[in-house]
Amino acid sequence: MNKPIKQHLIDPEICIRCYTCEMSCPVGAIEHNDDNVVINADSCDLCMACIPVCPTGSIDEWRVVNKPYSLESQYEWEELPEQEDLGQDEAATGLEALDDAMAALLADAHKGAGGKAKAPASAAKPTINMYNLGHPATATVQGNFKLTDDPKHDVRHIILDMGSLPFPILEGQSVGVIPPGTDTEGKPHLPRLYSVSSPRDGERPNFNNISLTVKREDNGLCSNYVCNLEKGDSVQVTGPFGATFLMPSDPDARLLMICTGTGAAPMRSFTMRRQRTIGENSGGMTIFFGARSPESLPYFGPLSKVPPALLEQHLVYSRHGEKEYVQDRILAEYEKVSELLADPKTHIYICGLRGMEEGVDRAFSTIAESGGEQWAAMRDVMREDGRYHVETY
Ligand code: A2P
After folding, report:
1. Which of 260, 293, 330, 390 to mutate to test the pocket of ligand 1 (most atoms within 8 A of CB)?
2. How far is C-alpha 386 from the chain's CA centre?
3. What is the tens place of the pLDDT at every residue in 116-136?
């Protein structure tokens, strides 16, 4: 009989097909087809290099198996199989030592705010992976608007009309855009992921359209393509993706949103959803939003029209007046944040630059500790409850 092994797997329901794990695997054990991203058990050496780079935690899945799942079977999955019952003795055989080593590597990989994400308990069920590389949706550009006034910092609001195609999207989900052309090996480009910045009923209420918030990156293949799109152009779109960074339907839920730059996209969709539904009769929303200056803060104008009773705003600037990052303002708003952290109705959303994560985590630690709490433990409880969500890049 085969000795059981611990097999590293990816949850296809949560994976957003960003392929970052595939690009970071030092032994080439991760691959994808049009549907799924999969791990080859023969070549994976459990080095954990892919764990911290995964933005959703979908890569943090393990099964003890007598016979590893083949690549072919993983490609077929729409959901991850449950752990098979191998019998007590078999499952324990020879795995203890490996578990210790893995636990140490995993603990290291989980340092910082990363970890397995869970959707809010009251979130609507998302549709995922409806359109893929082999079968993308064709959208038509309805508009491309400049959001920033800074010539060196071009951020665009792009509206895509999905026409007669079904494209069910929830706030917080992402879509892929496939840039035209091929890479240096002659293969089609992989899609680049963008968070949707419009709510589920459309950028315009009850229109079948979505909006994206895209920053032009120097030499960015896809961002330049998207930022140069013109009204009437066709765009190949995949998705929707993302099953955890979703908003609670519970009207009493309190949303604490922290973002930088284009990380504001999902926060805009959350705000518009509440604006169009329960409005100010909700548990409330608070945003800490970091940008270089008012001129480079996406949606600065529209934000000024959102009433404080719906959204409490803390807009901070790093290159305008005294330099301030979101974590500095979180600390300055100690009382407000401390009260939010202690409330089981609070949901935290962090989106934007990866560098921000550590600073925000430290600010929460300081605030929690001065109230006699351990932030790491509080964060684990929140994550397990589906109340802590991070999407950084
Ligand atoms: P900086 O002036 O230091 O670049 P954008 O993507 O539009 O440039 O906005 C990102 C914002 O996030 C900028 O204000 C940027 O400031 C800020 N930022 C950069 N690094 C961090 C960090 N480690 N923590 C928090 N904010 C950061």
Report:
1. 260
2. 13
3. 789 999 999 999 989 998 899
H or E stretch at 194 = strand 192-195
Please check whether residue 232 is in contact with residue 139, taking contact to mean a CB–CB distance below 8 angstroms: no
**The pair of three-digit structure tokens given for residue 60, joined into one six-digit string:** 């943090």
Residue 257 CA, distance from chain mean position: 13
Which of 353, 354, 361, 362 to mutate for ligand 1's pocket (most ligand atoms within 8 Å of CB)?
353
Instruction: Select from 108, 253, 241, 132 the least CA-distant residue to 190.
Output: 132
Domains defined along the chain, listed by start: 5-109 (3.30.70.20), 137-241 (2.40.30.10), 254-392 (3.40.50.80)
β-partners of residue 215 are 155
What are 66-96's pLDDT values in tens digits? 899 999 999 999 999 998 887 766 555 555 5
pTM: 0.90
Alpha carbon distance 15, 34 (integer Å): 13
Nearest to 72 by CA among 43, 26, 41, 47: 41
At 321 the pLDDT is 95
Q: Do residues 196 and 210 make contact, with C-beta atoms less than 8 angstroms apart?
A: yes
> How confident is the model at residue 112, as a pLDDT?
47
Indicate if ligand 1 lies below 6 Å from the C-beta of 325: yes
Separation of CA 259 and ligand 1 centre (Å) = 10
Report helix, strand or coil for 222: helix
In the reported structure, the alpha carbon of residue 375 is separated from the centroid of ligand 1 by a whole-number distance in angstroms of 24
Q: Whose CA is nearest to atom 21 of ligand 1?
A: 356
**Residue ranges of the chain whose pLDDT lies below 70:** 1-2, 88-98, 107-115
Rounded CA-CA distance 306/329 in Å is 20
CA distance 20 to 354: 14
**Residue 366 confidence (pLDDT):** 98
C-alpha to C-alpha distance for 337 and 369, rounded to whole angstroms: 13
